[in-house]
Design goal:
homodimer, Tetracycline Repressor, domain 2, mainly alpha
Amino acid sequence: MAGEEARQARKGPGRPREERVTRAVLDAVVELVAESGMSALTMDAVAGRAGVSKPAMYRRWATKQDLVIAAAESRIGALVVPDMGDFRAELRVVLTARMEAYRLPGVGRLMAGVIGAASEAGAERGAYRDYTARVMGETRTVLERGIARGDVRADVDVPAAATLVAASLVFRMVGEHGTPDEALVESVVDLVGRAVAARP
Amino acid sequence: MAGEEARQARKGPGRPREERVTRAVLDAVVELVAESGMSALTMDAVAGRAGVSKPAMYRRWATKQDLVIAAAESRIGALVVPDMGDFRAELRVVLTARMEAYRLPGVGRLMAGVIGAASEAGAERGAYRDYTARVMGETRTVLERGIARGDVRADVDVPAAATLVAASLVFRMVGEHGTPDEALVESVVDLVGRAVAARP
């Protein structure tokens, strides 16, 4: 609690309310998508569910696309993985965190909806690409740390390997409509671990 | 031409017209999605573009979802790869065929739209899952042939490896909004080749 008070003091008195509003709105988005899908999602429905005025929502998220990306990022966002001295161990941390998030109610539907919405006419493709880059960032860091450490080959195509890691659980979910589980995580750790290993 | 005539005779005289109608409708879907995105796609617009009556369309595709899956399958469908005596060579054939198809106009948008639509309330998830299984089928065959031949490890998790293969180019396209190219194909062949190799 002392930490929480210190954080509030640092950010000023208006901040905790801001955070409560943000959380209420993003939770409402995930709940509504879980219940009825992306096409039924409207700014009105979100405002009603969250108990927030529409102007307060529009101040934070100018478009429905901004809002659904923010909701996705509240569940699947940037990660930080400590140096564990072992590439496979760090990769397992990344994939386990994603797997747990993908299994939350509504998240599969939300991710599929974000992918669909980002390809629509008028979508802000840059905002979506930036989000994906944030999601994939720590995997690149883990690969590059492995190269520096010596347990990942120096000649690995890091962007391609990061794509394989990010793609695997997402595709199992939104492409195959399966549930990413511990067994898939272990198989991907093993497959990608062999794929990039410095020594076989 | 002799082969074409024999095929027409085998299928009966009504068949070529059926095929022309099917092709016109599925081409119209891909064109319209390329131009305006999935949310603008209506049965009316497709019928108008293809010059086909709506009853004729509904006889073949009961719903818009059936129609977009059929359009996706006309570009990204089942493959047959001959035994080339080498897993990597066969994997390269699979990925190159997919890469070329993904680069056709409108296909990226169509695939993203199919993913989004399949997660909507009321979507026929079974039809979509069956489509994905057909797309991934040949990759499983190639992996199993490699195991039988001996250049793929017998203990590979075949479904997980097939997910990695299918996921990589799709995610580069609909997740990262990048263009799958020969360099990515070669990197995925190399990464997956190492991941499943019987002997390093």
